[in-house]
Amino acid sequence: MTEKHILVALPLSAGQRERIRQAAPAFACRFTTEETATLEEVLWADAILGNVPVELIRQNRRLAWFQSNFAGPDPYLEPGVLPPDCLVTNATGAYGLAISEWMLGMWLALAKDLQLYRDRQRRQCWQAIERPVRSVAGSRVLCVGMGDIGASFARRAHALGAEVVGVRRHAAPAPDYCLRVVGAEELDAELPGADVVALSLPGTPETARLFDAARLARCKPGAILINVGRGTAVDSDALAAAIESGALYGAALDVTDPEPLPPEHPLWRLDTVLITPHISGRFSLPRTLENIVGIFAHNLRRFASGQTLDNQMSRRTRYVSAEMPGRRLTCEAEVPAQ
Question: Which residues are catalytic?
């Protein structure tokens, strides 16, 4: 392959930049960030690794490859943003550790009323909450979405003694950390048995408002909902109403609809709702950025040698799936380290 221009828009260290250069020594590399990328740099590139502004990238009509640093690069998959023949790959495999640990932390906090005791601490209130807390061990966890993030959480829940059921678009053989993995058509049948419903879904027409008032009503009374995928999968008003009525115990939300959640929304004031501003992934855990660099370098070597890229996304389904060439890097253990 002739020399190509590679633009990397990530806040990398000198060592991480060198890993990218060594992956394709014959290529020209430039390094910038999402915030500082210029139109000149974007138009220079044959391949872009990192989420430069959509309004800039859509002006490069010869772009051969876009590697997102997100698992779900929704804005870049919209018609007209990238050239029709531009390869699109994502960062599946990079975020499972960080986000699944966030999910685990939030679940434990809600199960043990830790957020309520934090509120009492701020008031210097030494008073027990007179009600039983919950146990992680023996709980039934329904993981709706079994990609890298959902599977990473499922493994951790299982390790702590929970029973785990997975939900995918299509049923699949169950790994050793799941009781079963069912297709999406079985979602409603599984909801009444789940103490925790954990969502890690992409933003697609099929997932929009998947958890509306009717589906929330099918959940087990007192269940906890966790959402780290897309806020659009949950009707925020219906969720608040279900928690206020006691039908659901609470929720942990790193994503909301709309995002950011308006200050007047009732979810903000509910004691058993924990909200963070879409930060469970990103780069707050340094290993996440290392994982992303590993994926970038792995695919850049393949790009330079004319091989099929891994983590290729379907613009139709917005998944890395069997219909696409290459393979999916599904967990932190598979992310290339060198």
Answer: 230, 259, 278
